[in-house]
Amino acid sequence: GLFIAMMLSLLFLVLLRFTAGVLFWIFIFGVIGIIGYGIWHCYWEYDHLKGIPGSDLTVYDIGFQTDFKVYLQLRQTWLAFMIILCGVEVIIILMLIFLRNRIRIAIALLKEGSRAIGYIMSTLFYPIVTFLLIAICISYWAVTAVFLATSGEPVYKVMANQTLCKYANLTCDPETFNTTNVTKLCPGAQCTFAFYGGESLYHKYIFIFQLANAFVFLWLVNFAIALGQCTLAGAFASYYWAYRKPADIPLWPLFSSFGRAIRYHTGSLAFGALILAIVQLIRVILEYLDHKLKGTQNSFTRFLLCCLKCCFWCLEKFLKFINRNAYIMIAIYGKNFCTSAKEAFFLLMRNVVRVAVLDKVTDFLLFLGKILVAGGVGVLAFFFFTQRIPVFAQEVPVLNYYWVPLLTVIIGSYLVAHGFFSVYAMCVDTLFLCFCEDLERNDGSTAKPYFMSASLHRILGKKKLSPKKA
Known about the structure:
about 5% strand; transmembrane; membrane; antiport
């Protein structure tokens, strides 16, 4: 199932080069058609209720009702629905009219991303490296956490009925427990292990050590992700800035980019990961406090924690966005983290509409791809487990409850597709930043030629300037 998911993901990425625009416009016109049908249905219901007693009442007249069907008997309700749908329809159509050129650029960049991956196929398998690095980080954190939790001396306590035994929950020694009077005074009592602990200064601050271990874990995981993003960005940037594609692309772009990231950009990547890890650790602490204070009746404290959790969640999302684009600029120009983050941020702000359009178009197509891959593998797995494929009928064991393996295959396929499409999303983001830099730094002249593809040239209406005009 996972192999089929890999093949379907690769097939979808290849087909995006030819079908990205078709899929997007089919979806858009489908949404317009559905909303148009909704407008017609609302008008039909509004006209159908004409003359029916009680249909001319207003929502204010009937007040609040728990049964929503009551509102559907009013003409005013359908009129409001029709006005809202008409407004949404007009907004979508106006956005398509005014943003049509930017949508074409977004689709062209998606096709260019598929072409870039076709030339640098090794990038599709780099998520395996990131997965292994994160697995090592998780193993380190888990082993360290277990050692910290078990670093004290074992503490044993008396387990007995608390109402009948006064020694219940008191510490005891399992070696001498049977020789004490506890077993006589409390029949059935046992000396069982409770936890690891101690009275030293080290044991008192064991929670702080666990918190530090969690912080190191978050830092390492974010560094592994940052290394992957910078490596992929460097490989795809080498594709974009090749004047003759694919002749001018380096021989081993992914390996070269990985070497540059390790040799020159480790400090910048670690600094970006550190900032994100601090915010994530604060979120972990807030979640811990919220769990501890859940039983309290102080509504102001819960409200304050809720606001803080929301603010730091937004801050984490913003930092991930900034870090991602900063790593791309680091891979392109090799500057430090702060300079790259500042240049990336202002570059995106100067092209904010293009950013929004590209982000939504990319999110839609990649989500559609994940659903198609997971759904396709799920259908094949369903027929496989139910023995409806004659070729495998003799090999499949009879299952009385096949939903668990079926869901496992579907979730695994979705994760595999997510891994492949994350590379594609990084490719599109890198090409977009390179495209914006290309527009600002070059003018199409002989001295400053554009590096963009011919399709982007045609969409922008850019032409190479003659030497005289240049």
